[in-house]
Amino acid sequence: MDLKKIYNNRNEIINGHINELKTMAGLASKTEKNIFTLRENICNECPIKVNNSCDAGRWIHPKTLDVVTTSIDGYIRGCGCRLSAKQKSKDSLCPAGFWGGEF
Q1: Residue 95 and residue 28: Cα distance in Å, rounded?
Q2: Cα(22)–Cα(76) distance, rounded to whole angstroms?
Q3: What digits encode the pLDDT tens for the residues 24-80?
Q4: What pLDDT does 4 receive?
Q5: Quick one: pLDDT at residue 1?
Q6: Alpha-carbon span 40 to 84, nearest angstrom
Q7: Helices 30-45 and 10-24: angle between axes, nearest 10 degrees
Q8: What is the mean pLDDT of residues 94-103?
Q9: Where are the domains of the chain?
Q10: Which long-range contacts (CB under 8 A, 24 or more apart) does 62-65 make?
Q11: Cα–Cα distance list, 63 to 3, 39, 76, 97 (Å)
Q12: Is 68 helix (H, G, I), strand (E, B) or coil?
């Protein structure tokens, strides 16, 4: 676990968990729910998604969707995040550029 990365991203992480709770409680706006659902659908189609995580042990080429298990130029490493919270963090971005910046 990279504690420095967690500390640097703490606002995104907290925001994601708060919005996850808001969504479960029915307090998210229609626009928020639509964007969160769109992000979830994109992640569900991603070949480096494993259960509820973006697999940090795999790299994906954002254009070809080819997946490898070692670092190669042009490939993006999975972030390792718990996706059900990250998808709901308004300031977060998919490391491969598949979503983010909608808010």
Answers
A1: 24
A2: 31
A3: 999 999 999 999 999 999 999 999 999 999 999 999 999 999 999 999 999 999 999
A4: 86
A5: 60
A6: 8
A7: 110
A8: 97
A9: 3-86
A10: 62/96, 62/97, 62/98
A11: 31, 18, 11, 10
A12: strand
Cβ proximity of 28 and 89 under 8 Å: no
- CA atoms of 95 and 82, how far apart (whole Å): 13
3-state DSSP assignment of residue 17: helix
Dihedral angle, C-alpha 21, 99, 49, 76, nearest 10 °: -130
Residue 14: both structure tokens together: 């907290």
What count of residues does the chain have? 103
User: Which pLDDT score, from 0 to 100, does residue 22 have?
Assistant: 97
Residue 11 CA to residue 18 CA, distance in Å, equals 10
Closest of 99, 78, 81, 77 to residue 15, by C-alpha:
81
